[in-house]
Amino acid sequence: MWFRDPFERMSVAAHMVASSDFYFGDPYSPVNAPNTGFLYVRSSARMVGVFEAWRTARLSFPGKHEQQVFNEIKFELVDKRGLRVQFLDTVHNAGFCNNTRDFNTLYTMHANCCVGLAAKLHDLGNLMKEWRAYRGMDDAQRRRGPVRWKVPGICIH
C-alpha cells in the first residue's frame, strides 16, 4: 500500500530497489532481508542477465519461491554480476514484520509476515482506515507524533 511516493527514497545509482523484511542499516548491503513484493528494476542488459540467472537458480532451490531464491543468490549476483541493490529502509517502507509504526515517516506498507489473502486484506483495510484518520488530523496534531497505527490485527508476526 502506497501512502507517499516511494521513488523519493530510491537511489538512481541502484540497478534494483527492493523492499526489506528486515533492514540492518546499510541500504546496499546484501545482508538485508529482501521482500520482492516491492521491486523496481532499471532496464539494462545487466538486469536481463540478473533475471535470467535468478530464473535459472530456481532449479537449484526446489520448493522455494522467487523471493527465497533471490535471498539465496543475492551475494553471488552482487559479487559476480556487479548488481547494485538498494534495500529500502523499513522506517519508511514498512511491513507487518517490523515495528515501524509512525505515519509521519511511512511511505509504503507491505503485508509481509502474514499468511492468507483474507488476513492481509483485513489488516490492510484497517490500516487504510487509520491512514484516513491520520489524514484528517491537522498539522499540529501530526507534529506532536509519532502517529502510530494499530495493525496488524489478524496478522500476528
UniProtKB/TrEMBL annotation:
It comes from the Eukaryota. InterPro entries: At1g28695/At4g15970-like (IPR044821), Nucl-diP-sugar_transferase (IPR005069). Residues 1-124 form the Nucleotide-diphospho-sugar transferase domain. It holds the Pfam family Nucleotid_trans. This is Nucleotide-diphospho-sugar transferase domain-containing protein. It comes from Aegilops tauschii subsp. strangulata (Goatgrass). The lineage of its organism: Eukaryota, Viridiplantae, Streptophyta, Embryophyta, Tracheophyta.
